[in-house]
Amino acid sequence: MNAAPSGQKPSAGGGALLGPVMRPLNALVEKLIPSALVFAIGLTIIVAVLALLLTDAGPVQVVEEWGLGLAGLLEFMTQIALILFLGYILASTRPVRALLRRLAQVPRTPMQAYLFVFLIAALASLITWGLGLVVGGLMAREVAEQARRREMPVHFPMLVAAGFSGFVVWHMGYSASGPLTAATPDSFVADVLGEPLSITETVFSSWNLIAAAVTILVVAGALTLIAPRNPHDVVPLGVDARLQDTEVDDAVATPADRVDASRLPTLLVGLMLVSYLAIHFSGGGGLTLDIVNWSFLTLIMLLVRSPFELLALTKEAAANVGDILLQFPLYAGILGIMAGTGLMQVFSEAFVAISTDQTFALWAFLSAGIVNFFVPSGGGQIAVQAPILLEAAESLGTDPAVAIMAVAYGDQWTNMIQPFWALPLLAIAGLKMRDILGYTTIVLIASGLVFAATLLIVS
Questions:
Q1: For the chain, which residues make up each domain, given as ranges?
Q2: What is the tens place of the pLDDT at every residue in 254-305?
Q3: CA distance 100 to 145
Q4: pLDDT (tens digit, 9 = 90+) per residue, 354-370?
Q5: What is the pTM of this model?
Q6: From CA 27, how far away is CA 343, in angstroms rounded?
Q7: CA 61 → CA 52, 68, 70, 107, 405, distances in Å?
Q8: Other C-beta atoms within 10 Å of 282: how many?
Q9: Buried b (16+ CB within 10 A) or exposed e, 353-386
């Protein structure tokens, strides 16, 4: 899939207010950043070496912990894979796709296009990270297509970077795996705390909602500064790269085909899921990873026209999320090394040792940002870091909700320069991580200032 004209390289920030910074930054990442799979393999080697140097583990234990970790967190990985998978299907349904196309007609200038794609992706990410990643890619493609028709000079890599930048607020929203895990009865976080931590104290706290809004505003300002302004330097969407609707083979030749082409089967399942969710919430049930997944499965069943369409969307989704599923075991293995050898405890305790009651949340945030390079999973980080950080938070008198959100902020923060979660969006866009990393690095800096300031204020 070619997103840009053949032989044309992405602009290095020509015409942007921060062009002198963007040009060398983009040139550097184009040369040094490998594929996401090689990145994961390289991280595995780095973590193994660090475990040998910083812990008492020997080579045999490191390999054993890695092997055991490959299959670790299977339930959690399944839940996260479903969020991504179902989010992709939901964003690809005809009603949602039609909505995206109508929205893509709103921007009238290149700058409006960049900020509009970012805002839509950010709002979608606050609903669920899986939806946000897919919508960010689809929105960038749709807006680029509209710009091409209007002969409006829009830089496609910048549009895609804006779409991925919306992901920087996902762990402040509805599908926040860390806070949701803490709110789930009998979870490992609830066991540490002695009881579940209500989502109203974390995601739906006033300070987190304000921080999410401020982050969106600040990142929008940063994107304004780095967006290319010279029409001659932009790379548009290629003329052969228009995003097509999913083709549905719904030919009816047999009675069985009539059932597969009918809306009734999926509608019935959708209504059953609506009933289940109503019973769950009316009975006092809260948000968990499973409930988030069933919420989106409900919408999918209500929006698709038939099992034929659902199967076609499923095949498309499977093709686009496969790269991430392949890397899950590798990152689980990395987590196995870090947890089994005590390497993650070394990192966490090093930050805890220099913390005070006022700075603990900030150091927890920074430690989570570093750990996210090696374990790009908020839930995975919570699984291993929570016991250490929550114990330290209690001894320092820090609100456990602040500690949980500090890890959540660190996780979403360094995603901007970690290629793992960009894969679905990049697959839709037909680009590589190196094409957008220069822009998202600036987003990392801008959002990090907001996260750090928020945690210092609420501590």
A1: 36-237+254-458
A2: 787 788 888 899 999 999 999 999 999 898 876 666 887 898 899 999 999 9
A3: 12
A4: 888 889 999 989 988 98
A5: 0.78
A6: 34
A7: 9, 10, 14, 56, 32
A8: 8
A9: eebeeebbbbbbbbbbbebbbbbbbbbbbbbbbb
